[in-house]
Amino acid sequence: MVNDSDDTTSVNTGADVDWDARAAGFDEEPDHGLRDPEVRRAWAVRLRAWLPGRAGDVLDLGCGTGSLSLLASEQGHRVTGVDLSPAMVTLARQKLAGRDAVFVIGDAAAPPVGEQRFDAVLVRHVLWALPDPGRALRHWAGLLRPGGRLVLVEGVWGTAAPVGIPAERLIGLLAPVAGQVSVERLSGDPLLWGGEVTDERYAVVAVSGASSQEAGEAAAAGQ
Q1: 14: exposed, middle or buried (Cβ count in 10 Å: 0-12, 13-18, 19+)
Q2: Sequence-separated (6 or more) residues with CB below 8 Å from residue 63
Q3: Which residues belong to any copy of the Methyltransferase type domain (predicted)?
């Protein structure tokens, strides 16, 4: 059905899922664990294009077991990960042990990071499940330094009872909070998912208070 308050297509918001129970097997999905070298490489290439070119502070919201956090760390970024599931956070801490990364238990919509600000906020497959995505986006934009980036990987999955948030809706929600916004369609790259997909998958990069150079970089990432 459609949630009339935000046009998010959903039969459930994911809030009733026991993510602690799913943590042990979470990385078995190709795009979760990134265990296949080709899948891992595909995500690393995309992430390098989406995140700032220079090393900075990245906030990974709904970080799960930390697979994208690890890629960001390997690219030189300092990572803060937030997830509501203690079991997921435990696995993320193990995965990035010894790296410049910290993981905390908390709500992705209102992450417990205090006054800390970031060069990028990275969110994959989380926004669609929040009860008020517009409010979350406004809060996340406020966590960015000038010229910082919101990197949002989302989609609409399924046919009979689709769940997710269409790209056009997300772009509309970003209009009040971001400057340069670019969309990159991801459905056509099977390496990202471990196989062919037919549903809508995409990434949006939104630059807050962007300089002309930063805006150009974000636009190039969406080509």
Answers
A1: middle
A2: 69, 81, 82, 83, 88, 89, 92, 103
A3: 59-152
Instruction: Give per-residue pLDDT as tens, 126-142.
Output: 999 999 999 999 999 99
- The string of pLDDT tens digits covering residues 18-36 is 989 999 999 999 999 999 9
DSSP string of 87-151?
A: HHHHHHHHHTTTSSEEEEE--TTS-S-TT--EEEEEEES-GGGSS-HHHHHHHHHTTEEEEEEEE
3-state DSSP assignment of residue 70: helix
The model's pTM: 0.87
- Answer for the pair 220, 184: CB distance below 8 angstroms, yes or no: no
* DSSP string computed for 14-58: STTS-HHHHHHHHTTSHHHH--SHHHHHHHHHHHHHHS-SS--EE
Q: Long-range contacts: 196-200, Cβ < 8 Å, 24+?
A: 199/155, 199/156, 199/157, 199/158, 199/159, 199/162, 199/164, 200/155, 200/156, 200/157, 200/164, 200/166, 200/167
Do β-strands 200-207 and 180-185 pair in parallel, antiparallel, or remain unpaired? antiparallel
Domains and CATH numbers, the chain: 20-208 (3.40.50.150)
In three-state secondary structure terms, 192 is helix
CB atoms under 10 Å from CB of 101, counted, come to 23
Torsion of CA 142, 70, 91, 18, to 10 degrees: 50
